[in-house]
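in:
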């Protein structure tokens, strides 16, 4: 992903992502000098719950 200026769509559908996975994903996907912004993030059919959404939102809050 670092080779491209923008990631249009990242799909992680039905990957058994947990709350902890959302925390790591949010930190990994935070845009910066080495990580391009993500336009669409699809996480359908994962069971991370409200805590996972909060953890993900914390890491992605500065993503355009």
């Amino acid at each position: 992903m670092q080779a491209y200026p923008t990631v249009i769509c990242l799909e992680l559908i039905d990957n058994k992502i947990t709350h902890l996975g959302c925390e790591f994903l949010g930190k990994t996907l935070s845009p910066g000098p080495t990580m391009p912004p993500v336009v669409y993030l699809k996480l359908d059919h994962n069971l991370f719950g409200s805590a996972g959404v909060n953890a993900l939102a914390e890491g992605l809050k500065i993503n355009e």
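note: The two ends are 17 Å apart (CA to CA).
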